[in-house]
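Hey all, sorry for the wall of text incoming. These are the four entities for the joint prediction.
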Amino acid sequence: MSALDNTLLEDILRQARPLIGQGKVANYIPALADVPAERLGIAVCTLDGTVYQAGDAEERFSIQSISKVLSLTLAMTRYHESELWQRVGKEPSGQPFNSLLQLELEQGKPRNPFINAGALVVCDMLETRLTAPRQRMLEVVRSLTQQPEINYDRHVARSEFDHSARNAAIAWLMKSFGNFANDVPKVLQTYFHYCSMTMSCVELARCFLYLANHGRSLGQEAAVLTPKQTRQINALMVTSGMYDGAGEFAWRVGMPGKSGVGGGIIAVVPGEMSIAVWSPELDGSGNSLAGTAALELLAERIGRSIF
Amino acid sequence: MSALDNTLLEDILRQARPLIGQGKVANYIPALADVPAERLGIAVCTLDGTVYQAGDAEERFSIQSISKVLSLTLAMTRYHESELWQRVGKEPSGQPFNSLLQLELEQGKPRNPFINAGALVVCDMLETRLTAPRQRMLEVVRSLTQQPEINYDRHVARSEFDHSARNAAIAWLMKSFGNFANDVPKVLQTYFHYCSMTMSCVELARCFLYLANHGRSLGQEAAVLTPKQTRQINALMVTSGMYDGAGEFAWRVGMPGKSGVGGGIIAVVPGEMSIAVWSPELDGSGNSLAGTAALELLAERIGRSIF
Amino acid sequence: MSALDNTLLEDILRQARPLIGQGKVANYIPALADVPAERLGIAVCTLDGTVYQAGDAEERFSIQSISKVLSLTLAMTRYHESELWQRVGKEPSGQPFNSLLQLELEQGKPRNPFINAGALVVCDMLETRLTAPRQRMLEVVRSLTQQPEINYDRHVARSEFDHSARNAAIAWLMKSFGNFANDVPKVLQTYFHYCSMTMSCVELARCFLYLANHGRSLGQEAAVLTPKQTRQINALMVTSGMYDGAGEFAWRVGMPGKSGVGGGIIAVVPGEMSIAVWSPELDGSGNSLAGTAALELLAERIGRSIF
Amino acid sequence: MSALDNTLLEDILRQARPLIGQGKVANYIPALADVPAERLGIAVCTLDGTVYQAGDAEERFSIQSISKVLSLTLAMTRYHESELWQRVGKEPSGQPFNSLLQLELEQGKPRNPFINAGALVVCDMLETRLTAPRQRMLEVVRSLTQQPEINYDRHVARSEFDHSARNAAIAWLMKSFGNFANDVPKVLQTYFHYCSMTMSCVELARCFLYLANHGRSLGQEAAVLTPKQTRQINALMVTSGMYDGAGEFAWRVGMPGKSGVGGGIIAVVPGEMSIAVWSPELDGSGNSLAGTAALELLAERIGRSIF
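and here's what came out:
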């Protein structure tokens, strides 16, 4: 087993880099399609706040669906457990990430908060209880990362909104089943802003340390979540965090994780560390191809797995 | 946090017992419907072989789908990884446990080895490579438990075979896609015999200790599986071990587990202990209702979770 | 066989009336739920313009999906065959009338122009080519019926728009597949206005005489459609005109027909007559229960069937 | 409009022949794949028994699913209407011809008797009421055609049985829902024998004259079906006789018809004539490509359509 340090991370990136070229950069909006495919970064943050990093770990990218963990975290602090989970489930979908099929069969209740439908319901709930949900999210993330300049990429958010037909269909379908309270375009705007946040691997590792640290972030008095809530989110990430590739990811990497189509993945070793990787090319399930490989290598080299 | 001992287990059963009456005993075959609903047992086996137990922990019951972990284990020792996983997937199904819908859409490749379709493919593979797959399974289980009298319940096996129309449909559908090599009734017979094995909680806890112990069972020279294979099975149990309730189980219990419609559940704390519970009444997803509650209580009381 | 006259029609209504009470008035919008369930009317128009009638044949009601035949007729006069049918199919759906399931599996191309999705595409096409699609439809219907005061029920149209979540979902889903060109709310408005048109059985029978008369309406110089186009619409009505009850309707009635959830049905005996019936209570497929029975009785009594 | 005679039929075949090469001969069993693609025949039988023909109208071929009309006819003479239609529906499937998806969603009741599932249920019902269902079918067909040497092609029947996995899956699925009474392999054998019958266009046209003639066949005292039953079968053929291409066939040809993957199609003009065409290459829906075109040309040339 290897010690965790920058050299190890560099070594891991060296091993993962040859995979670049075998995946596909997300291209459903131009803003994402333009990201250079050869970017590759990794950062690890341990419980004491030490950060190890390698490659393009300080370059910001679009966190996309990684934001679904943040919106769920926010909702868990504003809603009672029973309110939240009557509107969204906790089970893996067994379907591509934006299918309407299942949503219709299951009467407008999304399977979990990490598929688009589920995250839209969560945003709808935030819209109801927060006066300024976009501003509030920025405050949370800036506080978790101690980086006051983290922001939305309004160009990406607008571009997503311009290509939002399928997400609009999902939201309207939920509305038809009575599971969507607010104005559809308004919630879509919030949702796409959350997706458009740009953060680096270093910032993401710091941001999600609370998931490795029983709900506590660095240098903050108040806990973000209770230890139990933290375990719950980690459980949900293992079963549903990687679109339709959660089983494969658990099998290979053995950590709770959440990916975004921007090529980022965050993962945690509970009680030890949070990790962020970035490589824009995706595999068939929509998860970063080289990023997953880097996490698998890291898990092997440091001998960590929740299993 | 409480120390693990018989008193703790008895206390947990006392708390879980009031749930009896809120679930439903499986009744698709008469032999299962006749099991007394008030049975409740638990057993824990730690890495050194110590067994703690409470309630009806020594009464044998039909292990049903828990056998799917054993058939997969056997297949992993007889097939190369690439051979095995080209015929069955690793992803949660997001569907009730014996649906043909998904199997047809996905061209006859079952989502994972813990749904009926997947376990049937695994049995088909064992049929190909083992000369006496039923006898071989008994040898494996007798060796793992050190109980030479563990056996099939031929009455249950026959009864299942007499009600096997849906499983036959599943097998024939896979055959139509070229993913089933042997005679359908022959493989069904093997499959139902595996399901009909009767074991007690104490025997199950001992049997599955290898999943908590890096692949090694008690008092056996040779490892059952490699440490990596063991982690892989545990990963698969978390994402797919509880039919369409895997997400909820991970959320509440936080351990890899596998259930059977006989009301048994096995679970492991990797590196520490294996656990078996039994209560015949099932929840809406087909998992033991009081059994799940007992595992949740145990996890809380001893402060264990993989998350 | 009986001669066609008012007495026959009255006799038929007498036989059909006892069915009232066994169906259900559509209640998804209040404006429809309020229609008195005991209304029952029938009108027949022969090629020479003679009208026979009985019961509430002159009371206007919401024609709802019967308007889908009119929007298709209009589209067939404004689009070349190949343009039209590349955006909508000609096959029965085998599904309830507003399912998204099939639409997603078939990449946003609706099965036929008589399900909601298909009619929405047709309205989208009319929006593209007509400067005032709502006004134009009124002109067409007023001309076909010679009743200049036929109009939309703006109360019903508004009420439908207020409950349009599912149709919005359908339109957005088609947009996500590139099969919807115009602004969704604008097209929905047009669509709901068409549905909200109020006409009586007598007016409907006159209106649809062109389908019995090789495309020609009464007292108009120019044909509405060519004889071939007329046969095509009749064919489409037989295979897809009655939601998921087209097979049963063909079996029992043996005429091309189209129903609406307002309880109206129009039908034709090609080369002989057009028929309209009205009874607000619907059967399980969404077709007028007593209305279907009246048509079946009429077909038997006058010995007419296309089969 | 042209007069119906052999010259007209030859002219039609000349026009349709260039389509040969654009379809695909069924190849799921070797016996069908070997049929020469360039075969093309047509025969028409008028109510007085006159037969017109052109091309390969006297060469026998495998009638395949055309036999589903015969097994339904036979069942309608042995079962009361209510018994028959509680086990099989009357609606188009909106699905490829051998899908299990819909059958599972609809609890094992096939949509109509012309898809495989429905025909299997019909054969299961014949198995229950007939002592020798294969022999009885031959007697019926020999009597209808006055050709005592019509027979099964046992080579084809055996080949189908050897490739019957999907049909076995369908039958077992229905059995799991309680909608299949007899031994699955036994019923499959009967079903495949029916499919394997070999007949020529001339024989088919004669055989199905009863569908054009109010249920009466040539030179037989007793009617095959009542006039009402005859209309019912014709209705069912229009809505469900052409797999997932019934809408298109009604649109283009305008006659009740039933196709088989051997490349044959039978069609009727009620009250006038029965028609059979043969061309082995199929279109995307599984219907004879040139055969459909020939029927469309015939309908145009003689000016016949039920619409």
